[in-house]
Design brief:
Two copies of one chain form a homodimer. Chain A is mainly alpha-helical and 150 residues long. Chain A has a single domain, classed as Ribonuclease III (Ribonuclease iii, N-terminal Endonuclease Domain, Chain A), CATH 1.10.1520.20. Chain A is 63% helix and 0% strand. Chain A is built from seven helices and no strands. The longest helix of chain A is centred in the first third of the chain and has 26 residues. Chain A is globular and about 55 Å long. The two termini of chain A are 29 Å apart. Chains A and B meet through helix 1, helix 3 and helix 6 of A and helix 1, helix 3 and helix 6 of B.
Chain lengths: 150, 150
């Protein structure tokens, strides 16, 4: 099933900002970001667990992490001018939803990509924040390859 | 990539309750349920929109809807004894996560399944509740085919 009919208006005028400032995409992307991060974190925690115990966890990625990832990827141009941290985080979520809708990355691809970038001890909050920011920065740079140039 | 190593403890003692009462699976399943329902709802709203407008929306599925779906599917046996509505909803989320982890249904399969069952006018809250309950009931009956018999 193609989801193109859900993106008709965006594809009629496809720009970095038409994707990155879409509120509906951001809402759907919020779900994709938290789901893929939860599973990636579960995988990394399980891989690093000393007694080889399976660990399954839910995790919300904070707006600050997402906003910083967008800045570090030099992709603030996808957000609106004078965007605050909340707007920047929404832009990350919209871009992740878009890349999934156009089928350039599956949920499994995104999880795999995050797992590859996540390191350090994720049970220590400050290390997790640093690691998650880098992971989403790397994901954004990958996503950018499939996005319009302006 | 196989996710089996994330389910080792559950597979060591695989029962309806070991899946349905797992708190970690429920957390991950919460994300899958809300994501797939958001996209299914977006698809149905777009298909039914009069001016052919694309509609993208986020949506949270209430605990009541999920609890009632489990009851109507006659699958309370997957939850703990004397479960309240919150426990029953957690069980639905755990079962959805499990079926995805063991790769019997993809995210796209779940979305497609929900779309097939969703009808009525989803912009009217009472109709949405009725329709979503039936959709998750049908999804649960499908999932059950792949679950242990006791």
């Amino acid at each position: 099933m193609s989801y193109d009919f859900l993106l008709k208006d965006i594809h009629n005028n496809l720009t970095q900002k038409s994707i990155g400032t879409d509120k509906g995409l951001a809402k759907i992307g919020d779900g994709i970001v938290n789901l893929t991060y939860s599973i990636a974190k579960s995988i990394v925690l399980t891989q690093n667990s000393k007694n080889n115990k399976s660990i399954r966890t839910g995790a919300k990625v904070s707006k600050t992490i997402l906003a910083n990832a967008l800045k570090e990827a030099n992709m603030k141009g996808f957000s609106r001018t004078r965007a605050d941290a909340h707007d920047l985080a929404d832009t990350v979520e919209a871009l992740v939803a878009y890349i999934w809708f156009i089928r350039k990355m599956t949920i499994e691809d995104i999880i795999h990509f995050l797992v590859e970038s996540l390191d350090g001890n994720l049970t220590i909050r400050s290390e997790e924040i640093k690691s998650a920011t880098i992971a989403f920065k790397n994901l954004l740079i990958e996503i950018k390859k499939h996005l319009p140039k302006s």
